[in-house]
Amino acid sequence: MALLEVSGLTREFGGLRAVSNLSFEVRAGELLGLIGPNGAGKTTVFNLVTGFLRPTAGDIRLEGKSLVGLKPHAVNRRGIARTFQIVKPFPHLTVRENVTIAALARLGRREAAATEATRVLEQVGLDGKFDSPAADMTLSDQKRMEIARALATNPKLLLLDEPLCGLNSREIEDACVLIEKIRAGGVTIVLVEHVMKAIMRISDRVVVIRQGEKIAEGTPAQIVSDPAVIAAYFGKRVA
Amino acid sequence: MRRLIPLVAALALFAIPLGVSNQFLLHLCISVLMWTVLGVAWNLLGGYAGQVSFGHASFFGVGAYTTMILYLSFGLAPWYGMALGGVMGALLSLPIGLICFRLRGPYFSLSTLAVAEIVRLVALNWESLTAGPMGLLITTLPEVPFFGSAVNWERKEPFFYIIALVAILAMLGTWAFTRSRLGSELVAIREDEDAAESIGINTVRAKVLTLAASAFFAGVGGGFYSLYYRYIDPDAVFAISLSMEMVFLAVVGGLRTVIGPVIGAVFLATIAELFRDRFTVGHLIFYGLFMMIVIRYMPEGIWGRALRLLRLSR
Amino acid sequence: METFIQSLVSGVLTGSLYAMIGVGLTVIFGVMRIINLAHGEMVMLGMFGAYWSYTLWKFDPFVSLVLWVPLLFLAGMLIYRFLLRPIITGDELNGLLYTAGLSLLIANLALLLWTGDYRTLNLPYALEPMRPFGISVPVPLAIAFVLAAAITGALYLFLSRTDLGRAIRATSQNPEAAALMGINVTRIAMITFGLGTALAGAAGVLLMPSLYLYPTVGEILIVKCFVIVVLGGLGSIPGAIAGGILLGVVESFGAVYVSVAYKDTIGFVIFLLVLLFRPQGIFGAARA
C-alpha cells in the first residue's frame, strides 16, 4: 500500500477546473517530483492534500485512511507537513521560537519542544542563527526555517512547494543536499519545482501535470523524453 | 525580588479604601477598575489572538442583564449573579464565534459589530424578558453581614473591594492564559493563521476558547455594572460606543501585555470621569483622540512604548 | 396590494439615500482600501449643516446643498491630507481603528457643542404628503430622491466621461499601475476622499427634513452603510446603489410584514449571511 494515494481528485472554482480527475500515488520513502507549466494546478494539489481546500470530487488517502474533509491541523496531526510557495514565517518571532511553537503544538511540554526545536534546527543547518528574528533572515534561511518548522511536527510525508524558487545556484545546491538528507532520514517527500536540474537529480519518480490533468508519470529519464511532456513545455511543433 | 511587585501592588490596591475616604475618588477608582476588567477581557481576544472585536458590549450587556434579572426575579445575590453573568457571556460567545470566525481581519471586526447590534435590538424589543427601553432597576441590595454589622451599600468601599478582586482575578487569568499552551497557539495564529494551521494548531478551537474566556470576563464586568449602578437599559449596556471603549482602552494601553489595558484604563477612564463630572457628555472625545494619536505615533500603545524604552536603556 | 406598493415606494425612496451614503463609502474604499468608520459622522455633519442653515438663516435645506456640499468636499480633502495620509500605509486593521477613533471624536465633539437633543426640521411645504395614485409620499423624501438620483447621475457621468473620473477609476482598480501611468495617486486619493465625504454630507442634508437628528446618529448609519457596501461588493458603485435600495426596501417590508421593532435587525442578519456565504457581495467582483 502506498503512503499517499490520490484518486480521481478534482477541484472546481466556479466554471474553472483547477485539478481534473488526478490520480497518483506516493510510495513510502521515495522522493516524488511534481512538475508542470505555470498554472498547472500544483499548489492547488498541495492545498487539497493538506486540507486548505476541499475537493469537488475524488479521494485522498494517507496509509489507507481518507483525509477528505479534515482541517489542515488535523491533516498535519495525521502526518503531513508542508512548506509554502511564498514563505510564511512567524515574522516577529525568532527562528528558534518559530520552530519551537511547531514542536510545542505536537509535544505539549516546553522543555521537550525546546529540545526538539534545537535538534531540528541543527539538522537543517541553521546553527548559530537561532535567536535572530525570522523577518530579518535571508530568503534561503527563511526557507530552511520553514522546512525545520515542518519537520518539527514529525511528519511521515513532507510537501515542499517550490523550495528553490528565488535561490542562487550555490543555495540551490545546499538545498538539494538538505532535501536528500531529510529523505535519507526516513521522511517521504513530494517536491513541486520548476528547477529541472534539481528535479532530475534527486527525484525517484516524477508526475507531470498540465491544466489540472496528469499527462505523464515515470522516472526522470522517462518523462524527459515523453512527447506529451515536451509538448506541454515547448509546444507541439518541437515534440 | 521582581516577583514580589505584583503582590505588593495587589496589597496596595486593597489598602486604598483604608486611606481614601473621598467618595468621588473612590468612584473614580471603581470606574478605572471596572474598565480594567473590560480592557483585560477584550485584550485576550484582540491583543493576544489578534482578532479585533467591535461587539464586546454584547457580552457585557448579557452579563449585566443576567445579574439583574437573577436578582430581581429570583433573589440571587448579585455577586453570584456576576459569575453567572460571565458564564452567560461565554455561552453567548459560542454561536457568535462560530459565525464570525469564518471571517478574517476587518471583515471579522465588522461582523462582530453587526452581531452586537442584533443583540442590542433583541434586548430592546424582548420586553417580557428585559423590560425593553424602560430598563431594570435595583432598589435595595441584599443585607449582608460582615464581621457583625451589615454592609453599608450607600458607601463606595464595598463596591471597591468587589471590583478590585475581580480585576485581580482577571489579570491573573490573563497571565496564566498567556503562559499556557493556548497562549503560544494564539501567538502563532496572530503571526500567520494559515501557517499555524499547517503545523497542527486547531485555530478555530483556539479562537473559540479565547473568545469564551474574553466574553466571560466581559460578562462579569457587566454584572458588576448592574450591581454598582443599579440601573441598566439596552442603550447603556449594549451600546456600540461601549464596545469601542473597550477596544480603545486596550489599544491605547498596549495590546498583548497584561499591564497594557490597566494603563489604558487608568489613563482613559480617569480623563473620562473627570470630564464627565464637569461636562456630563462628550467624554468619549478623548477616547477617539488618543486612539488616533496612539495609532499614528505609538501603535504598540503607551505601555508597549514604555517597555521598549526600558529595554533600550538597558 | 396597495400596502405592498406603498411599502415598496417608501423603501425605494429611503433606499436611494442609503445608496448615496454607500456610494460615498465604497468610492473611498475603492481608491484607498480604507474602511472609513467615520463616514456616518460625515452624514451627521451634513444633517447639522442643513439644520443650522435653516434654523439660523432660513435657508431651505435643499438649497443649502449648494453651500454644504463644497464645504464638506473641502473638509474631506483636508481630513485626508492631514489626518489620514500618515497612517494609510499601515495595515488595514490599524486604518479601521484609526477611523473608529476619528468617528468617536467627531460624534462626541458634536455632542459637546450641540447637546444630544433630538432635532427635526419642519418645512412649511412638507406638512402634507403627496398622494399620487393613492400612495402616500412625503414631500421632502420625494425631493430628496430626485436630487439624490441627479447627484448620483452626475457622479456617474463624472467618473465615466472626465479625465479625472477615469483617473479615479484607474487608481481604484490598480494603484501601482495608475502611478506608473503618471497619475498622482495621492492627489487622487485626496480628491476621492473629499468626494466620498461630500456625498455623505449631501445625503445628510437631503435626509435632514425626514429624519431625527442627534450627534450619534452616525453609529447606526455606519453599520447600515456597511451592510449596503458589503451587499453590493466593496468598491462597486452600482453595487452600492443596488445595495442601498435593497436595504431600504427590505427594511420597509420588514417593518410592514414582520415587525416595526425588528426592521433594523433584518438588514444585519442579511449582512451576516452575505458575509458568510458570498463575501464578495451580490454584485461584487471577487476582489477583496
Describe the secondary-structure layout.
The complex is a heterotrimer of chains A (239), B (314) and C (288).
Chain A: E1 4-13, E2 16-26, E3 31-35, H1 42-49, E4 57-62, E5 65-66, H2 72-78, E6 80-82, H3 95-107, H4 110-124, H5 139-151, E7 157-161, H6 169-184, E8 188-192, H7 196-202, E9 205-210, E10 213-218, H8 220-224, H9 227-234
Parallel strand pairs in A: 3-8, 3-9, 6-7, 7-8
Antiparallel strand pairs in A: 1-2, 1-4, 4-5, 9-10
Helix pairs in contact in A: 3-4, 3-5, 4-5
Chain B: H1 4-19, H2 23-48, H3 57-74, H4 78-100, H5 105-125, H6 127-130, E1 136-137, E2 145-146, E3 149-150, H7 157-179, H8 181-191, H9 193-198, H10 203-229, E4 231-232, H11 234-237, H12 240-253, H13 260-279, H14 284-297, H15 301-312
Antiparallel strand pairs in B: 1-4, 2-3
Helix pairs in contact in B: 1-7, 2-7, 2-10, 2-12, 2-13, 3-4, 3-10, 4-10, 7-10, 8-10, 12-13, 12-14, 12-15
Chain C: H1 2-32, H2 39-57, H3 61-84, H4 92-114, H5 139-161, H6 163-173, H7 175-180, H8 185-207, H9 217-232, H10 237-258, H11 263-277
Helix pairs in contact in C: 1-5, 1-6, 1-8, 1-9, 1-10, 2-3, 2-8, 2-9, 3-8, 5-6, 5-8, 6-8, 9-10, 9-11, 10-11
Structure description:
- The complex is a heterotrimer of chains A (239), B (314) and C (288).
- Chain A has 239 residues and is α/β, with parallel strands linked by helices.
- Helices cover 38% and strands 25% of the residues of chain A.
- Chain A has helices at residues 42-49, 72-78, 95-107, 110-124, 139-151, 169-184, 196-202, 220-224, 227-234; strands at residues 4-13, 16-26, 31-35, 57-62, 65-66, 80-82, 157-161, 188-192, 205-210, 213-218.
- In chain A, helix 3 (95-107) packs parallel to helix 5 and helix 4 (110-124) crosses helix 5.
- The longest helix of chain A has 16 residues, at 169-184.
- The radius of gyration of chain A is 18 Å and the shape is globular.
- Chain B is an all-alpha fold.
- Chain B has one domain (4-239).
- In chain B, helix 3 packs across helix 10 (203-229).
- The model of chain B has no long low-confidence stretch (mean pLDDT 89).
- By secondary structure, chain C is mainly α.
- Chain C has 11 helices and no strands.
- The model of chain C has no long low-confidence stretch (mean pLDDT 86).
- Chains in contact: A-B, B-C.
- At the B-C interface, helix 5, helix 12 and helix 14 of B face helix 4, helix 9 and helix 11 of C.
